[in-house]
Amino acid sequence: MILMMVVSWLIQWRLRSKMAKYAQIGLQSGLSGRQIAELMLADHGITDVRVISTEGRLTDHYNPADKTVNLSEAVYEERSAAAAAIAAHECGHAVQHATAYSMLQFRSAMVPALSAVSRFMPFVLMAGVFMLRSTPVPLGVGIALFSLTTLFSFVTLPVEFDASRRALAWIDRRGIVTTQEHAMAKDALWWAAMTYVVAALSSLATLLYYVSIFMGGRDRR
Fold first, then answer.
1. Contact 40, 170 (CB under 8 A)
2. Cα 14 to Cα 151: distance, rounded to the nearest angstrom
3. 3-state secondary structure of 200
4. Into how many domains does the chain fold?
5. How does pLDDT run across 100-157, given as a tens digit for each residue?
6. Other Cβ atoms within 10 Å of 113 Cβ, number
7. How many CB atoms lie within 10 A of CB 177?
């Protein structure tokens, strides 16, 4: 678990470093993140999704509830390979939504349950650990609940990789980027994807940690 925390920090640092580097290189097409997002949506016949600016850095996301592509302030205005990659990636999620991409639908269906579970799951796990010598039931329930968050982390992976695939294919086909800029965009999205991979593996490591406590407690009974 400690190793995964260190790896996660390193990948986050690497991602920020890559984004900062590629943000300094101007896009030859001269398009901003907002313009790229609007163009990609239009090319896919999506007219009911708005592109808006949101505060912070690396806060870019697609919200299926209100159908908005939210671009961080820098990406919204920037005209760089990094901005092109992020803007097109978030629009990739909008395309997934519009085309009823199965993994996105599955992931979205899990959100209400996870929102409810996340409120009390830490308390169930903590109580389960303290009560393990008397009864394994609370920890077993906590592990079952935590397994949902781990499943969610792994379901997220194909959703993110598919959005990046759609984004890179479109910016290349549309001539948004040059060959060199395409390589930078691909590299930026790869490091972004690695943050989700590490998050999923970290969740799995934590789940296995609680399972080992559960099994150890049962053996001592």
1. yes
2. 26
3. helix
4. 1
5. 999 999 999 999 989 888 888 999 999 999 988 888 899 999 999 999 999 999 999 9
6. 12
7. 24
